[in-house]
Write a structure and sequence with these properties.
5-stranded mixed β-sheet, 155 residues, alpha+beta, 5 helices, globular
Length: 155
């Protein structure tokens, strides 16, 4: 039996292996305003950002099966132009693989992003459902203190 492999992958390779279905599952599980924001990933924009080195996806796989992924916008910060920052836009692990795969995905993402010159990683987690709260607690245990609160309003 193969072990879980964590690596940065190209969007095209992930799409070829069905990441769109996994992204839909993620959306269905966490999005609260589906009536206002229907699921519609902008693959063209993501691919353009990826080509420019501004978007990275770290996948967790067992064989060809995608167990989860973490996606990051990688850029300098307007207040710190000399340091790369990685802003996580999604962290998702299939329910059957949650636990150690998520920890491995976060830890390996750190190593891979550091290798690209990233100096700080930002994660956000949803506060409206139990798994989001667990993710926040996990991130704190892994050395990610709460540094900001994010508030959002649908207009």
């Amino acid at each position: 039996m193969s072990s879980v492999q964590i690596r940065i992958e190209k969007i095209a390779d992930l799409r070829a292996d069905g990441v769109e279905d996994l992204a839909q599952q993620d959306w269905d599980e966490i999005e609260t305003d589906r009536d206002v924001f229907p699921f519609a990933l902008d693959w063209d924009q993501l691919t353009t950002l990826e080509r420019r080195g501004l978007f990275k996806v770290v996948s967790a796989r067992k064989g060809r099966e995608i167990l989860g992924y973490a996606a990051f916008n990688v850029t300098t910060h307007p207040h710190s132009k000399n340091a790369l920052h990685a802003f996580n836009s999604v962290l998702y692990v299939k329910p059957k693989a949650r636990g150690s795969v998520g920890v491995k995905l976060i830890r390996t993402s750190e190593t891979l992003l550091k290798g690209l010159g990233v100096k700080r990683i930002y994660y956000s987690s949803k506060t409206h459902f139990p798994l989001g709260l667990k993710t926040g607690k996990l991130l704190e245990r892994l050395g990610y203190p709460v540094v900001e609160f994010c508030h959002a309003k649908v207009l």
